Amino acid sequence: VPGAGPVPSWQRPLQRWLRGQTWWRAITGYRRLAALPPAPYPLQWALDRVVIPAWLGEGREATRRLIRALPSIGDAILEGAMLQAFLASFFASAKVLVLLASTLKAARVRRRLVERRRTRAARLIVTAMRRRLAQARVSQLQRKH
């Protein structure tokens, strides 16, 4: 059971033994199959009317075949769920990496922008000082002559 917490140490060998039993795997497979949401109507109709009868047959023999197939069906559903969880985790990690990379890039761009503004301000100050000094020299020369 997901989220049930840690398993006591005395139950672990029992769980391992149960997982190896075909009847237990059949019960687990049935639970996983029953927990699946129904497919969209056209697909569900095709499964119920065409695919399942063609695969399993009809009547008691179909029930026997289904019971024999339940452990494999349960394993396939579990593998699919694990693949889905892995992909969800992978894409969530990829999203986090993309967000992190874009944040770093934005910080770099912001630093460059601040650096350019400071450089422009320094150039403006230097240019103003040169003009002022030039004007002072011109006025000093005019006073001399």
Secondary-structure blueprint:
Layout: H1 12-20, H2 22-35, H3 41-56, H4 60-144
Textual characterization of the structure:
- With 145 residues, this protein is mostly helical.
- Helix content is 86%, strand content 0%.
- It is built from four helices and no strands.
- It has helices at residues 12-20, 22-35, 41-56, 60-144.
- Helix 2 (22-35) crosses helix 4 (60-144).
- The radius of gyration is 37 Å and the shape is rod-shaped.
- It starts with 11 loop residues before the first helix and ends with a helix.
Q: What is the H-and-E element order?
A: HHHH
Q: From the alpha-carbon coordinates, what is the Rg to the nearest angstrom?
A: 37 Å
Helical content stands at: over 70%
Identify the quaternary structure here: single chain
Q: Give the uncertain stretches in residue-range form.
A: none
- How far is it from the N-terminal to the C-terminal residue, by CA? 101 Å
Number of strands: 0
* Average predicted local confidence, pLDDT: 88
Summed up, the helix count is 4
For the largest beta-sheet, the strand count, sense and barrel status come to:
none
Instruction: Estimate the strand proportion.
Output: under 5%
Q: Tell me, what's the shape? A: rod-shaped
SSE class: mainly alpha
